[in-house]
Structures are given as structure tokens and as C-alpha cells.
Task: structure prediction
Amino acid sequence: MASLQANGITIEYEDTGGADRPAIVLIRGLGTQLIDWPVALVETLSGAGFRVIRPDNRDAGLSSKLDAFGAPDIPAAIRAARNGEAVPCAYTLEDMARDVVALLDVLGIEAAHVVGMSMGGFIVQRLAANHPTRVLSMTSIMASSGSPDLPASTPEAAATLASSPSDPDDRDSVITHDAEVARILGSPGYPEDESERLAIAAARYDRSHCPDGVGRQMLAVIADGRRLELLGGIRVPTLVIHGRDDLLVRVEGGIDTAARIPGAKLELIDGMGHNIPLGLVPTLAKLIAEHASASGAR
Result:
């Protein structure tokens, strides 16, 4: 792994594959890290001829923590959003999109294929809309348009966002909590056993545990709101992937996203929830690689 200075912050990243290959940038979701991407997915995409770049988002992993902004007030942000008021946040998803552009600048990459899941899907939507010359193709996974007409998360899934470990200062408590969240949001058609969920939760905790950073990312998501007009302006080749069994971002969110982007392709996957289990890696890698290859370079 390596780090660099870009857009005023430190960005930690992993770069797999030669610099002469077309680049694919993988952008993770809320509170997760580059290590959360399955190694098998990275290896498969690299084996297909791509340079695979995985950054840690700001406020996650080993990238910069914006601690100077303090602890986030999530309830106040939710109230502001509901009242149509400006949501106070340390940074926006557009700032996070610019982090990716700055990363490409430093690495000397003119344009890349971008893949984002969940919050990362929101970020790549902004990349494709606002920085189209830097995007060869976009793949938006388990993300939505932000339309208020979409079905809400199931009560159990929604509760995971507000839940906390029984002892936030205890390593084992945090790991157990995160593994339980992964169970609730996971893919029923591709179940992972408890040891797998505990292992990645432990690896994430030991590499970087920053709950305030997760909260600041959440503020950016809340502040982003609706991307309806933004999606209509996207002209880069787009693939939308969504699980039919996603309890957090319901499948209608993926369907709506694809419908709003001119020419977007939509792939709905039975048994897929709000995660990328190992059993789905071959399917997802094939979809991403074929979409990127078909899009080519401009």
C-alpha cells in the first residue's frame, strides 16, 4: 500500500497492475476501507488486464481523518434535512469525488473506469456528472438516486445505521457489533459464516477505528440529498448493479438510478443484499470487466 497528498489530504491507496493498463478505481461505502474489497475481485479484474486502484475514502482507513471538525451531530442533520434546511457537514460528497480526481492527477492518470458501492456509488455518480472527462465508464453498485419517492430501508436495516456497540470503547464489543450489522445487511443467497464476518470486522478495527469519521461521512450523505437532475446529465457509459434482496438500499433505488441516466444498463442480482460476498465475486467481476472493456478509452 502507499499514500500520497491530494486535494489537501493524505489518501492511502492500493495499486494493483501495471501503469500501462486501463485503470479501474474502486470506491467503498460508508465507514468501510479499501481492505473491505474482496481480494478475489481485485485479482480477477487485474487478471482481466486492468490496473486496479483502491483508495481509502477521507475519514476512513489510513487516509486523513478530519478530526478538527469534531464529533458529528447526526440527529441535528436529519432534522435539518427533513425541514429542507442546509445540513451542516465537514465536507460533501463532491469533495470526496474531487479526492478521486486529485488522486488520478497525482498518479498521472488522465481518465479511469470508476466503480462505487453504496456511498461510493453516490460518489461515482458525482464523478461521472461533474468530471466526465476523467471518467471512462461508471459502475454504480447498491446505490440510489436519493428520490424521496423510493421505498425506505426495512426497519431492521435502518436500525443498523443508528445502532452502537454495547461498549464503544471495547474492541471485542465493536467487532461483534459490526459483524452483526454485516449479517443483517448481507446477501441471503450468498451467506457468509460468522467467522468470515468477524475476521473482516477485526481487520477493519485493527487497521483504523474512527467512529467520528463514519459520522462525518454520514453527514455528507445526508447533505447530498437528491441527485435526480445530476443523474439526468450523465453521459458516460453507465452500468447499475443492484441486489434484489438489499434491505438497506432497496432494489427500487437501483432501478430508479438506471432509469434516470440516459443509456444506462441495469443488472439485478437475485440473492444479493448490501454487501459483496465471495460467492458473487465472479459475477460482479465479469460484469465490471465487460462493461469497462466495452466502454474503452476516449
About this structure: The radius of gyration is 18 Å. The first helix runs from residue 39 to 47. The domain at 2-151+212-295 is CATH 3.40.50.1820 (Rossmann fold). The mean pLDDT is 96.
